[in-house]
Write a structure and sequence with these properties.
The complex is a heterotrimer of chains A (228), B (286) and C (556). Chain A is mainly alpha-helical and 228 residues long. Helices cover 54% and strands 10% of the residues of chain A. Chain A has eight helices and four strands; from the N terminus they run αβαβααααααββ. In chain A, helix 2 links the parallel strand 1 and strand 2. The radius of gyration of chain A is 20 Å and the shape is globular. Chain B is an alpha/beta fold. Chain C is α/β, with parallel strands linked by helices. Chain C has four domains: 138 residues, FAD/NAD(P)-binding domain, CATH 3.50.50; 78 residues, Alpha-helical ferredoxin (Fumarate Reductase Iron-sulfur Protein, Chain B, domain 2); 166 residues, FAD/NAD(P)-binding domain, CATH 3.50.50.60; 146 residues, FAD/NAD(P)-binding domain. In chain C, the strands form nine sheets. In chain C, strands 14-13-12-15-26 form a five-stranded parallel sheet. In chain C, strands 19-18-17-24 form a four-stranded parallel sheet, covered by helices on one side. The radius of gyration of chain C is 28 Å and the shape is globular. Classes of the chains: A mainly alpha (228), B alpha/beta (286), C alpha/beta (556). Chains in contact: A-B, A-C, B-C. The interface between B and C is large, with 119 and 122 residues. The structure holds flavin-adenine dinucleotide (FAD) and iron/sulfur cluster. Iron/sulfur cluster sits at the interface of chains C and B.
């Protein structure tokens, strides 16, 4: 390991055990990149572990793109245990790329707080049951089909994930803000990267679901807070 | 991301993206021969083009709701059912369809979020609507102090009537609300409004033609420019409501066709009456 | 007066009130509503007291009335007027919720990952893919959608699926998916007027997908790469029964294809020396290359379908003889080839040549002549094709005269664009009055300018002549292309197949069966001139019905 001093290794039993929230947690702790190395395709000890890993990592990198973090900061490489040279090659290549991009947050013009906030929302999103469920279904959707027996193409899965992720991130951001204190639509919109009418629509949807409630009004602006 | 009427919103990372172009035979080479003109896609262009597909789908069939439902009340395999009936009478009712081509560019519908149609406004007012009955405007959810209603000639007096009722309801919700009606300088409209002055205190009526609507930067209020006999005036509103022309819903038109009824007979606004087809009635009221 | 039954269409406030009124009068009421629930609140104005309020219809009451059946999420498929009664077929779309079990706990809404544009609330908020309809009527449903593109396609092609496969680079699978329903992917890839692209949702965002060209791409790829189709056409096991198909257009050939795949012996009778119908003798080469057409038709004959050319039913063989020759069922797919006249004076002068005749002669290699100055009358594809062909044959000036405006023009936009690009002159709002001739030869054309009148209730605006705007064009060739009707003379001589008022063959829309048992009809001869994919859909439907018919014959 002395070849690549910037890297800290964490061992896991199987890449399939890595949860997207762990990756985001690492970024929250300030790492500049996460390199995940696992067995070669088809050589997984637990049969489908690295396929599941690929699905989860793909989702995480989509999520990173959405919150404005360069998705090159996350890389999934494959090698077998006997390939020491390849390990060094992958690790060096990765550190070189991270050096080029610079420290975490460079790509976001805003301050550290914003970065932290977005990462927290992203983490809350991936920890939600919805995303865990959908990502867990990905392989099934492509091979056997969904509840209606319709099979999905890779392209369609991508579209679907992007849509759900963007919604989920926005909803989690709104929820995180409302947790602090009651806010108006404009307040929320100023704090997150979303125009007021979209915030309003999400809030209307959340009220419908009983997640958000009306707290009162401040002049002409209704204030909202999280339900109990 | 664009939000269109009657369309669900997906968010996209790749918009706008041009259509990929197919190769074509140059015009000069098309004379005196019958060679193929449209030459089709190259492979990479085809893949790029295919990637533009939104893969439209609503329920994705993931089964999470079923997993959550303790009552086991969801059946993904349920099939459509066919029912055959034999009845003595048929009554068609009209519903609330509107013609959507009407609010032309100049009214800014679709471009300015605070320009709403009368049907959207009905939803906003309704306790059962998206905002739980709170009168707020669609851009930032703030309570409007000043609303302009535009009644167009295409909308007709029926639509004006509907708008008047909405205005009354809006006043009920926000007492201090100022309301202005813009309507054509014609007797029919003015009479209809005059009949209702007493019911809507604080209403002003502006006769003339609405020239243009402009969105004010920042506040997203709407600056309305109208003219009456050459005089042009401007006024700012928090929100604009457009009266739309009512229209028969597509399925009623289809049914009328099948029953051999001339659709011009189905008069919107009319009370229940029998059509030229014996046994078929039409109720044109909402 | 005894108990009557009433159908109320529309579950809004007035529908509900009318239903209650009828029920109270003791009648049996069916309340049919398109959306998943009834009775959102609507404004109501009380004229007497001058008050306005939201009135919630009395849902509890309608729901509890024994003699009201509420049918939501429903389309009325058919209404028939018979013997003082109305026979009605209603399709109740699946809600996918078992109503008796649902207790409105909202757990499903909370977890559903899909956010939809809320139609009920005019898009002002979100709803999830599984959701209740509104607070008043908490009936739930799942919004499962067939994409609009697929719904607009007469053969219901899985467009989302095949485009997704192209995006994934899986071209062969994409083509295989198309071929599951469509026997002629190349032909459609070249000439389909793509109703799917007109409705494509992406069009609301920027530009619609090039759905047709993508289909063509995968179909072409098979030809260019010489990749053998995955499943070589295997000649299916014969079932013995013979079916006669009249006409080798897309309707006839599709039906023949599907029946052959099911194992029937099929003979196609074709009056002309070439197969393909209007695809071969209407559409010009520059839009649909002959080798593509031949290749796809070849795939049908490879299944064992026999095409008898130069055999006109009615002339060479009487239609009633087909049964005695051993055919158990007949599919009539003779298209619409009889050109309609302009019904103006001077029409029979030399130099007046109908568009379809011109294109047919050209496509069959017969000598055709066009003059120097040509006017084509009409606004459909036939008009555009005739004009573009005339130009290619050396006409110096070609004008298309159409009596409405560009908006109403039925020809597809791309075709019009291409014609304009090539130098065809399109004159809108012009109608012909008289053909001028000397020595029996066309010398000029008297026309009048039109304007569009007020829209009628369906929004259609009819053209009306502008007084005093008559003018004369000097020219030597006039090609009317204002529509075609089927040539049904072969049926009219006896046999007794019913026709419609419009001169098309009358069928039961569900099965395409005519009034004669065992005789089916579809394609342009049943719908009037339409599009190839429409004819293909008819061919598929007919094949299904014929299979059902023959199996029921065998059972007896
Ligand atoms: C100029 C032109 C351009 C067109 N362009 C397009 C286009 O771009 N895209 C598109 O989708 N559609 C286009 N169409 C329409 C399309 O070609 C037709 O809708 C389609 O071909 C109809 O198919 P069909 O099988 O019903 O009839 P047809 O294709 O018309 O086939 C009927 C066949 O029956 C034969 N027949 C007729 N009578 C008898 C008889 N008594 N005995 C034996 N055989 C008989 C005819 O010779 C013909 O071969 C175009 C049509 C024309 C005329
Ligand atoms: S984007 Fe267009 S082609 Fe793709 S599924 Fe939607 S409607 Fe169909």
């Amino acid at each position: 390991m002395q070849y690549v001093p910037d890297i800290r290794t964490i061992r896991v039993m199987c890449t399939g055990r890595i949860d997207p929230s762990m990756i985001l947690e690492a970024f929250l702790h300030g790492v500049d990149g996460v390199l995940i190395l696992g067995c070669r395709e088809g050589e997984c000890h637990y049969v489908t572990g690295n396929i599941e890993a690929a699905n989860k990592i793909d989702m995480t990198s989509r999520l990173m793109k959405i919150i404005g973090i360069d998705s090159d900061r996350l890389y999934f490489g494959h090698l077998s245990s006997a390939e020491g040279a390849r390990f060094v090659e992958l690790a060096e290549g990765f550190t070189k790329r991270i050096r080029e991009i610079g420290p975490l947050g460079r790509e976001i013009k805003e301050d550290k707080e914003v970065l932290k906030f977005r990462l927290e929302a992203a983490k809350a999103a991936v920890e939600s049951e919805k995303l865990r469920w959908v990502i867990g279904k990905k392989t099934e959707f492509m091979d056997q089909g969904n509840k209606y027996g319709e099979r999905f193409t890779r392209h369609e899965i991508g579209r679907l994930l992007d849509g759900i992720l963007m919604d989920e991130i926005s909803v989690k951001e709104i929820q995180l803000l409302l947790q602090e204190r009651p806010l108006s639509v404009r307040d929320v919109s100023e704090r997150i990267d979303l125009p007021p009418h979209r915030v309003l629509r999400y809030i209307a949807g959340l009220r419908r679901k009983g997640v958000v409630r009306l707290e009162g009004t401040d002049g002409v602006s209704p204030l909202y807070s999280l339900q109990g | 991301m664009v939000e269109e009427r009657k369309r669900y919103i997906l968010e996209f990372t790749d918009i706008p993206k041009e259509r990929q172009s197919v190769n074509e035979l140059p015009v000069e080479q098309r004379i005196n021969n019958f060679n193929q003109v449209d030459l089709g896609f190259a492979e990479d262009a085809a893949v790029e083009e295919a990637r533009r597909c939104l893969s439209c789908r609503r329920c994705l069939g993931c089964g999470l709701c079923l997993a959550e439902c303790d009552k086991d009340a969801i059946d993904f395999g349920q099939a459509d059912e066919m029912l055959d009936l034999s009845v003595d009478f048929v009554i068609l009712t009209h519903g609330v369809e509107r013609v959507y081509t009407l609010p032309s560019e100049k009214f800014g519908y679709g471009r300015y979020v605070n320009v709403a149609t009368d049907i959207e406004f009905e939803r906003i007012l309704s306790d059962d609507g998206p905002y739980g009955g709170m009168l707020i405007r669609p851009f930032d959810g703030e309570i409007p102090a000043k609303i302009g209603f535009i009644c167009t000639e295409e909308g007709g007096v029926d639509a004006l009537n509907f708008a008047i009722h909405e205005a009354m309801m809006a006043k009920k919700k926000v007492d201090s609300l100022e309301i202005a009606f813009f309507c054509p300088d014609e007797d029919a409209y003015v009479k209809e409004l005059e009949r209702n002055y007493d019911n809507i205190p604080g209403i002003t009526v502006k006769r003339g033609v609405v020239k243009a609507i402009r969105e004010v930067q920042g506040s997203k209020n709407l600056c309305l420019e109208w003219s009456n006999k050459g005089d042009v005036t401007e006024e700012e509103f928090n929100m604009i409501v457009l009266s739309m022309r009512p229209q028969l819903p597509g399925y009623i038109v289809e049914l009328a066709k099948e029953l051999d009824i001339d659709i011009n007979e189905l008069e919107i606004g009319a009370l229940l009456k029998e059509t030229s087809k014996k046994g078929v009635f039409f109720a044109g009221t909402m | 007066m005894g108990k009557k039954s009433v159908l109320v269409v529309g579950g809004g406030l007035s529908g509900i009130n009318l239903a209650l009124e009828q029920a109270e009068a003791g009648n049996e009421v069916y309340l049919v509503e398109d959306s998943p629930g009834i009775g959102g609140e609507r404004l109501l104005y009380d004229k007497d007291s001058g008050t306005v309020d939201f009135v919630s219809p009395d849902l509890k009451k309608v729901k509890s009335k024994k003699n009201i059946s509420i049918i939501t999420n429903a389309d009325i498929e058919k209404v028939e007027d018979g013997d003082g009664k109305f026979n009605i077929r209603i399709k109740k779309r699946a809600s996918r919720i078992i109503e008796e079990k649902c207790d409105d706990c909202k757990a499903c809404i909370e977890v559903c990952p899909i956010n939809l544009w809320d139609d009920e609330d005019q898009g002002l908020s979100f709803r999830t893919a599984i959701d209740f309809f509104n607070q008043v009527d908490s009936s739930y449903n799942i919004v499962k959608e067939t994409p609009v593109c697929q719904r607009s396609c007469p053969v219901n092609l899985d467009i989302r699926g095949y485009i997704g496969l192209i995006a994934d680079g899986r071209f062969e699978e994409s083509l295989a998916l198309i071929k599951e329903v469509l026997p002629f992917p190349s032909i459609c890839g070249y000439v389909c007027p793509h109703p799917c692209e007109d409705v494509c949702n992406r069009g609301k965002v920027d530009y619609p997908l090039s759905i047709r060209d993508l289909k063509r791409f995968v179909a072409d790829k098979e030809i260019h790469d010489h990749t053998k189709p995955k499943q070589e056409a295997v000649k299916p096991e014969g079932k013995g029964e013979l079916v006669a198909v009249i006409g080798s257009g897309p309707a006839g050939l599709t039906c023949a294809h599907d029946l052959a795949v099911l194992g029937y012996g099929v003979t196609v009778f074709e009056a002309l020396p070439r197969p393909g119908g209007m695809l071969a003798v209407g559409i010009p080469d520059y839009r649909l290359p002959r080798d593509i057409l031949e290749k796809e038709i070849g795939a049908v004959t490879a299944l064992g379908v026999e095409i008898k050319y130069n055999t006109s039913i009615g002339k060479d063989i009487a239609i009633e003889d087909l049964f005695s020759q051993g055919y158990k069922a007949i599919f009539i797919a003779v298209g619409a080839h009889k050109s309609l006249g302009m019904r103006i004076p001077g029409e029979d002068a030399e130099g007046v040549l109908s568009g379809v005749t011109f294109l047919r002669d050209l496509n069959l290699g017969s000598p055709v002549e066009v003059g120097k100055k040509v006017a084509v009358i009409g606004g459909g594809n036939v008009a555009i094709d005739s004009a573009r062909c005339a130009l290619r044959l050396g006409a110096k000036e070609v004008a298309i005269l159409y009596r409405r405006s560009r908006q109403e023009m039925p020809a597809s936009d791309e075709e019009v664009e291409a014609a304009l690009e090539e130098g065809v002159n399109v004159e809108f709002l012009v109608a012909p009055l008289e053909v001028l001739s000397s020595d029996g030869k066309v010398t000029g054309f008297k026309c009048v300018r039109m304007e569009l009148g007020k829209p009628d209730a369906s929004g259609r605006r009819s053209p009306i002549p502008v007084e005093g705007s008559e003018f004369v064009m000097e020219l030597d060739t006039i090609m009317p292309a204002i529509g075609q009707a089927p040539d049904t003379s072969f049926i009219e001589r006896g046999f007794g197949i019913e026709l419609t008022k419009r001169g098309t063959i009358k069928v039961n829309p569900d099965s395409l069966g005519t009034n004669m048992p065992g005789v089916f009809a579809g394609g342009d001869c049943q719908t009037g001139p339409w599009i190839a994919i429409g004819a293909i859909a008819a061919g598929k439907k007919a094949a299904k019905s014929i299979d059902i018919y023959l199996r029921s014959l065998a059972m007896q």
